[in-house]
Design goal:
By secondary structure, the chain is α+β, with helices and mostly antiparallel strands. It has twelve helices and eleven strands. The strands form two sheets. Strands 1, 2, 3, 4, 7, 8, 9, 10 and 11 form a nine-stranded mixed β-sheet that branches. The two termini are about 70 Å apart.
């Protein structure tokens, strides 16, 4: 009974409040006008709903009801905040008087003139043109010119410094190891060929290892212990007739095979302990440090104008193969990696010369994008070049005007290869250039590039 009385009293109070609100709303239009009445109506109803829930009994034990009440309160508050404000009107003492422009302040020396201008002078409006949307072609060219183009003076100085270091290293090897027939050192890498440079900061230094073809032969990669066609072994032959010691390279034999690992270890010791790099650096106006902890043969060079990283690669050229002393990680130490870099660069330039194409331009952009992106950096270099070469066999239009189309098509091709987990080499289809990628890396690259197909600008954002 008491509960019924309380509810009834509440309804009466609500009825009284409702009557007051109805009366207020009925007269709002006369006082405030149509827009003001709308504003007052929305705000009043929202406040009334808040009062109703504040005076209604709460379901103490029902968390869903409490959550619902809280959400409704947020909605009501948002409704009040979102209520449109009526336009401000200029105040007038007499509503019957016309609205006049504000009086201009008197200039010193000017007499007061009671005349009223019939119409105010309008300030001319400057029409601001909307920002022009750049095409993908324009964005690619802008990205290249702003981020990928290395200043010619910087590149020239870096190459000059690298050649000077190359000459110093050549002199040392000739004096320290005259019995080893090393060929003439030469520079290589993107800084010379310009297909994947973000900065003039890295150079490859190639050290030819000259072998007597009568004493050495190549073992195909399929017949090696790793069953990988990209890795080869160099076997010492005819030991019965030409015993060990006949070749100066026999000191690096491990199990009748020329060990790339043994050769690298010897050169590493020379770079770290035998060469007087402080003296050479002082002569060249720079500071040179061999990287001790790296398995690669690396030098870090610091100069006032550039910071340069130089990687030394012993290289064997036999039977039209170019093999680098870059064995895979693990216990295998006799393997030599077949390099297609020279053939890649030559083929791309040959195709561009034949049809005035933009393959090199496209590769520079792709390499720059992938190298600067943390998820895609392993795609830069050789894999991208081979995709472009594969695509050139089916797409003949590589004019500069088609750069955006070819760029997007390369992304689509890459996604297709990543889905299969196989990117065959352009020069040897048995070789899978994705064989050393982890499954997680392939998934991450594929997801990123799949998004970039519909929105290529994702790859061009500043990192």
């Amino acid at each position: 009974m008491a509960e019924f009385t309380r509810q009834r009293g509440k309804r009466q109070e609500d009825s009284g409040l409702g009557s007051v609100l109805d009366l207020l709303l009925a007269n709002a239009r006369l006082v405030l006008g149509v827009s003001g009445a709308v504003v007052l109506t929305i705000a009043t109803l929202a406040v009334k709903r808040l009062i109703d829930r504040a005076t209604s009994p709460r379901d103490e034990g029902d968390p869903k009801a409490e959550q619902k009440t809280l959400e409704e309160s947020w909605q009501d508050l948002a409704l009040i905040k979102a209520t449109p404000k009526p336009p401000k009107k200029q105040r007038r003492e007499d509503l019957s008087e016309p609205l006049l422009p504000p009086a201009r302040p008197l200039v010193p020396g000017e007499a007061h003139n009671p005349r009223v201008c019939s119409a105010p002078l309008e300030t001319p409006r400057v029409q601001s043109s909307p920002p022009r949307c750049l095409t993908l072609q324009e964005k690619l060219l802008s990205h290249y010119s702003s981020r990928l183009a290395v200043p010619e003076a910087q590149a020239s100085f870096a190459l000059q410094l690298a050649r000077s270091i190359c000459a110093q290293l050549q002199n040392f090897l000739q004096s320290k190891c005259p019995e080893l027939p090393f060929g003439s050192l030469f520079l290589s890498g993107p800084l010379l060929d310009g297909l994947g440079v973000l900065a003039a900061d890295h150079v490859h230094l190639m050290l030819p290892v000259v072998l007597d073809a009568a004493l050495w032969s190549l073992i195909p990669g399929e017949d090696t212990v790793v069953r990988n066609p990209q890795y080869w072994m160099i076997k010492r032959t005819d030991l019965e007739y030409f015993p060990r010691g006949r070749s100066p390279w026999d000191r690096f034999i491990v199990g009748r095979y020329l060990s790339s690992n043994a050769l690298n270890e010897t050169l590493h010791k020379m770079l770290v302990a035998s060469i007087n790099w402080p003296a050479i650096g002082s002569l060249l106006g720079s500071v040179i440090h061999p990287v001790v902890a790296s398995q690669e043969l690396k030098l870090e060079v610091k100069h006032d104008q550039v910071k340069l990283s130089i990687t030394l690669f012993p290289v064997v050229e036999m039977e039209d193969k170019v093999l680098l002393a870059a064995p895979p990680e693990g216990l295998v130490e006799n393997l030599w990696l077949e390099s297609f870099y020279r053939a890649e660069i030559s083929k791309v330039k040959e195709l561009d010369a034949g049809d005035s194409g933009a393959r090199q331009h496209c590769l520079r952009i792709l390499n720059g994008v992938c190298k600067s992106h943390p998820a895609l950096h392993k795609l830069s270099g050789s894999p991208l070049t081979h995709v472009v070469l594969h695509l050139s066999a089916t797409s003949s239009d590589w004019a500069e005007e088609s750069l955006a189309d070819r760029f997007q098509q390369v992304l689509e091709e890459l996604v297709g290869y990543l889905e299969k987990g196989v990117l065959p080499s352009y020069f040897n289809h048995k070789i899978n250039l994705f064989c050393e990628l982890l499954e997680e890396e392939i998934d991450e690259m594929g997801f990123m590039l799949y998004r970039a197909i519909s929105e290529p600008e994702l790859l061009l954002k500043e990192e």
